[in-house]
Amino acid sequence: MRRDPQAVFAARMHPGARWLPFDQLKPLIDDDRLGWIRRSDLADEALEIFLGLDDGMPRFAAAMSAEGLDGEARDVRAAAMTLSPADAAIAAHGRSLVDWHQRHGFCANCGAMTALAKAGYARSCGGCGAEHFPRTDPVVIMLALDGDRCLLGRQPQFPKGFMSALAGFVEPGESIDEAVRRELHEEAGIRIGRVAHVASQPWPFPSSLMIGAFAEAETTEIRLDDDELEEARWFTKDEIHAVFAGNGPVNAPPPMAIAWTLLRTWADN
Amino acid sequence: MRRDPQAVFAARMHPGARWLPFDQLKPLIDDDRLGWIRRSDLADEALEIFLGLDDGMPRFAAAMSAEGLDGEARDVRAAAMTLSPADAAIAAHGRSLVDWHQRHGFCANCGAMTALAKAGYARSCGGCGAEHFPRTDPVVIMLALDGDRCLLGRQPQFPKGFMSALAGFVEPGESIDEAVRRELHEEAGIRIGRVAHVASQPWPFPSSLMIGAFAEAETTEIRLDDDELEEARWFTKDEIHAVFAGNGPVNAPPPMAIAWTLLRTWADN
After folding, report:
1. pLDDT mean across residues, chain A
2. Nearest C-alpha of chain A: how many angstroms from B248?
């Protein structure tokens, strides 16, 4: 539908069409649910992005002030704790696209102004005609494994008492496995053998695709890159079970994080 | 090293330092090897990107004219047939970074001019101070499987007689598995159950990360999206064996393509 301007125009006119306002990137939340509004409440100057159909009903994100509307504009990550998983995913996805539009008003190729295109899934340049698409940055997040032990680390900005799987951006020219090996070597000095893909999930803060993996450690001595990590150490399965039970030596990542899936999958097997 | 301007300056002065010229994105090739040059042959105005260390010797890409140098500037994909796999990967990676710099002279956020930073792994804006990094676009490429049969398709721009695994960009807000399911449903009308990750590889034309997967088909009736594919059909394992033997009904993807790995892995198991 996004490629068809007439279909998107018709979708906007559909009586079941709804818009989710994003005010300063914060979605409107009303009583722990998304604050969808009707066309009559849409601000004239709102930037609109087509999100898709929900049971045949068109859904849009709208960058606009939430003043005077029912509910409250709330930070997506804080709201994710109380929204349903489906609503949290919509809020995060909409926020990511609105953010991208607001930071891509100009063409990287020629510097001219760009305009929203393809119902919000592209911007086109008025100068050189280049088309720009939202980026999705692949990130590897991996649990280095040494038999009954797994490696967790602490970035300086983590909350106190919290450790998680190591992670880093896939760089141009790398495969996923190469990125896993490079990151564990750079950040913790660990050499890795086999890499196994576990799962992936979008993490739209602002636009990551988290790719979770297990990585077999061939060495275990930790050499920290102080710029990236302030601590890293090996944890036994018993310690991780204790972490999940709430009485471990550190705090576990929240269930919405893929690091949780990695730890849970490993600890339960 | 890229974060340390003094280290990169020292690397440039290293007697073993070499530069690979890219003329109009074409690397210098001399007698089926990369045409590395010394600093004395480097053009004054060359855009330089630090690629890394080869056995302790610094290596750079240099966007500059190749006129007067030994060898010939050649298209990366054509040259990949005769270069060693390691050299082909360096040429493709360098081309991808040069291309990105040349198309990102301006800041998407404010429209001001940007300058090369971090030894070529970033550009920074002289106006608003935003930092921009090369993008890596995750692409799923997958073999839908129905027992003894796999699905191949033909994009309109493919060479005659050539079919391959279906593929498409991972969109913002999706996981890898969701992208696999969406693409196969949109392009061929096939419903997918389980998805299994097989392998990944960079495909820097201009900047893709190809993520290869097997996808269990739950339906087999093909409904083509004419905008994307001009043909798609199921092939038996016997047919794929014949394709690899050079007497099949279509031509196989080249061994450097991940589609080859997918087909080979499936057919040999």
Report:
1. 94
2. 30
CA distances (Å), B52 to each of A151, B59, B221, in order? 28, 6, 49
Q: Which residues of A touch B105 (CB under 8 A)?
A: 108-111
Cα distance between residue B123 and residue B98, in whole Å: 12
- Return the pLDDT at A29: 97
Query: Taking CB atoms and an 8 Å limit, are A108 and B105 in contact across chains?
Result: yes
Q: Please, which residues have CB within 8 angstroms of residue A236's CB and are 6 or more apart in sequence?
A: A148, A149
Whether A61 and A108 share a structural domain:
no
- Label residue A151 by pLDDT band (50, 70, 90): very high
Report CB contact under 8 Å: B202, A173. Answer: yes
- For residue A82, what is the domain's CATH number? 3.90.79.20
Q: What is d(CA B249, CA B240) in angstroms, rounded to the nearest whole number?
A: 9
B176, B177, B179, B183 alpha-carbon torsion, rounded to 10°: 140
B63 and B121 within one domain: no
Q: Which of B134, B155, B178 is the last residue of a domain?
A: B134
Helix, strand, coil share (%) of chain B residues, nearest 5: 25, 35, 40
Number of domains in chain A: 3
- Residues A21 and A52 placed together within one structural domain of the fold: yes
With beta carbons less than 8 A apart as the criterion, state whether B163 and B154 touch: yes
Same domain, A41 and A162: no
Together in a domain, A126 and A141: no
* Site from B200, B227, B261 to mutate, A interface, most A CB atoms within 10 angstroms: B200
Residues of B in contact with A186 (CB under 8 A): none
Alpha-carbon distance A168 to A170, whole Å? 7
Instruction: Check whether residue B155 and residue B98 sit in a common domain.
Output: no
Do A128 and A113 fall into the same domain? yes
Which candidate in A114, A116, A176, A181 is best for mutational testing of the B interface (most B CBs within 10 A)? A176
Per-residue pLDDT, A173: 87
Determine the distance in angstroms separating the CA of A120 from the nearest CA of chain B, rounded to an integer.
Answer: 12
Q: Are residues A88 and A205 in the same domain?
A: no
User: What ipTM was reported for this prediction?
Assistant: 0.91
